[in-house]
Amino acid sequence: MIKREVSANEGHAHIYINGKNNAGLRELASLAISTVFLRENALTFTLIAYDHSTWVTPTGDLIAFTTPVIRPEARG
Fold first, then answer.
1. Out of the domains of life, which is the source (predicted)?
2. Which one of 11, 14, 41, 51 is most buried, by most CB atoms within 10 A?
3. How many whole angstroms separate alpha carbon 21 and alpha carbon 34?
């Protein structure tokens, strides 16, 4: 776990696969996609400060991005 004093414009991302936090995931390339991903998935990235508070926009919305991921063999 990263524990640092909070500074403006510094932090890290949390990665969620199908709603589960994968905090231990250091490199996405090390993930065994075939053993973790289902046929259809949601991959979400959120921006987090070093004290694990969430970053939000000036209007209070969570800074996050979610995209669908479909395994190639499932597209047929």
1. Bacteria
2. 11
3. 18
